[in-house]
Amino acid sequence: MLDTYFKISQRGSSVAQEVRGGVVTFFTMAYIVALNPLIIGLSKDGDGKYLGGGDVPNLALVAAATALVAGVMSILMGFVANFPLAIATGLGLNTFVAVGIASKMTWADAMGLVVLEGIIITVLVLTGFRTAVFRAVPTQLKIAISVGIGLFIALIGLVDAGFVRRTGSGPVPVTLGDNGELVGWPVVVFAFGLFLTIGLMVRKIKAAILLGIIISTGLAIALESAYKIGPLFDGATGNVNPKGWNLNVPALPEAVVATPDFGLLGSFNLFGSFDRVPLITALLLVFTLLLADFFDTMGTMTAIGQEAGLNDKDGTPPNAERILLVDSLAAVAGGAAGVSSNTSYIESASGVGEGARTGLASVVTGLLFLLTTFLAPLVAVIPYEAATPALIIVGFLMMTQIKLIDWEDYGIAIPAFLTIILMPFTYNISVGIGAGFVSYVVIRYLQGRRKDVHPLLLLTAGLFMIYFLNSPINAWVS
Question: For this UniProt entry, which segments traverse the membrane (predicted)?
Fold first, then answer.
């Protein structure tokens, strides 16, 4: 029954392979259950209240809702779209919601804007507009998006592992380790996990990525028990320990099961924001959310489909309309649950690297997220440093597609180049896509090849120009 519904054999996979892929995807993105509460749970709204309406933060409340929505929407992606793509609260979007939106109004008003954006983007999918825009993008530019995302997730892995860190000063924004030096046992765990996973892969050992995560976590727990390393940042004291673990401190939890509190569900006010900020400001906020959601998923599903070998000759993954529909509904669900817009996760590529090819992997990931609502303490066992080697490996695999781009044709080569470099350099998928679209349109027009530019791509490039010039436009309107 599973094989028939999910087309497992047809896509050259197996149930065991899908389960492994789903587990690996969960491990590489489970950090969001701990990180989202730290981003939106510790921020105050325009009325000086924390998420949930209290005067003190309630991180457990945010964590439970984050895991619940991620679980439900990932399962929906698996069953409806049959694609190995998991969903959770969007990083970057949650920061924008916390800092750029909620600070101007109440949390309920801010989440109302997220729901409104999700409804709009769902309508765009149902009318076929979102899919039509996707199909208007040249195939080689889609490949460039996939390659750029590969570099981006590799950088995410290096930063999360502490191998690359922000300098905070000077002409260079990032550096090796702590001020140019690799320090602390966590980096050793990362290096061990990376070379272990590489070794298992080149020896063609099944479950190489999953085994790398599990064994590295075991080493991390042993090192923490022996040396009492502690976290990189201690929220209680405000102290920074450059030799500490990033986010999760690997230690066996005192309790495995915790009762979740879903009291945050339904904490949104659909049109309340329009009473707190000018109409044009509210519309610009919705537009910014819309553009990020619209194209992040477009790039993510292209990259995942390409890596899994599922895309057609035009670079379009199977069931593209269903993928985009579920992703759009995830934005609505995230806002309605009070945890910010949910979107597709590029970390799903780690599961594809482990062999996932169908939606069964997403169902497995979703079930693990649902279990996390009860097993939140267990998720904290796995440190970034043990999970991030998977992102480096997958980044490499996605980079190999770069050979499919025609570097002799400047009309596609320059936009591809800008797409590839700006994703990691700006830490933003949409910026890379936007730069690629705009430059492609400009160069093709300069070459006198206007017929190569689809009208929808021209429209999209114009919208991206508004996105890039958002700040001066906002200042001029104000």
Answer: 21-40, 60-80, 85-104, 110-129, 141-163, 183-202, 209-227, 277-295, 360-379, 410-443, 455-477
Phi, psi of 368 (to 5 degrees): -65, -35
* Length of the chain in terms of residues written: 478
In which residue are the tokens 């149902």 written? Answer: 126
Euclidean distance between CA atoms 431 and 249, whole angstroms: 33
Quote the crossing angle between the two packed helices 429-446 and 455-468, to the nearest 10°.
Answer: 120
- Please name which of 46, 49, 87 lies closest in space to residue 66, comparing C-alpha atoms: 87
Contact 355, 21 (CB under 8 A): yes
- Estimate to the nearest angstrom the gap between the alpha carbon of 281 and the chain centroid: 26
Contacts of 10 (CB under 8 A, 6+ apart): none
| Model confidence at 209: pLDDT above 90 | no
pLDDT digits (tens, 9 = 90+) for 1-54: 889 999 999 999 999 999 999 999 998 888 788 778 877 887 889 999 999 888
Residue range 81-98, pLDDT digits in tens:
999 999 999 877 887 888
Q: Cβ atoms within 10 A of the Cβ of 92, count?
A: 16
The DSSP H or E segment spanning 395 is: helix 389-399
